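Incident log, support desk, overnight shift.

02:14 A customer reports that sequence design results differ from what the structure should imply. Their input is reproduced verbatim below. On-call engineer (initials T.W.) acknowledged and began investigating.
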């Protein structure tokens, strides 16, 4: 119960769930990582940016596990409360495609904590070993829905944390 309260309070205070568009597939989560790094660098006016080596996706997985637990025991009050605190709004067609009982098990199965391959991250946007750290960026490994149309990525920078949802662009032609 204490874990739920902590997640609920954290969600109410600082959690944001937003969508972004990117071409992506399971084998190349680094496209997403590079996009986040580039966006963050622009946001912080090109100040020194250091990518944190802690990159597990446990935060996202723990939230999905809580949602799945309440779905399984059919506790709609706790499920709705948790979804509300996380910004998962009833009737949002995109969020309903991701946060549902058909996706939970698949999302949870993607737990990962392997090191970043720094050769695949845009070196122009990362200062790996600068002692004068101005901004540390924490990014978790992306997890994907069954159809690969959506990726969920945990991020933390300064006083903001949350999960960004990336949407696969449909290629025309």
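02:41 Re-run completed on a clean worker. Output:
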């Amino acid at each position: 119960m204490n874990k739920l309260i902590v997640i609920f309070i954290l969600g109410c205070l600082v959690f944001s769930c937003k969508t972004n568009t990117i071409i992506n597939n399971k084998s190349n989560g680094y496209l997403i990582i590079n996009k986040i790094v580039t966006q963050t660098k622009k946001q912080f006016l090109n100040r020194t940016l250091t990518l944190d080596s802690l990159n597990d996706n446990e935060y996202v997985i723990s939230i999905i596990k809580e949602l799945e637990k309440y779905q399984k025991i059919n506790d709609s009050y706790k499920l709705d409360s948790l979804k509300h605190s996380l910004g998962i709004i009833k009737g949002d067609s995109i969020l309903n495609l991701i946060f549902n009982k058909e996706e939970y098990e698949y999302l949870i199965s993607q737990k990962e904590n392997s090191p970043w391959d720094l050769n695949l991250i845009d070196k122009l946007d990362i200062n790996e070993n600068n002692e004068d750290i101005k901004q540390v960026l924490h990014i978790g490994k992306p997890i994907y829905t069954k159809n690969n149309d959506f990726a969920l990525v945990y991020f933390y920078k300064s006083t903001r944390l949350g999960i960004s949802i990336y949407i696969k662009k449909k290629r025309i032609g």
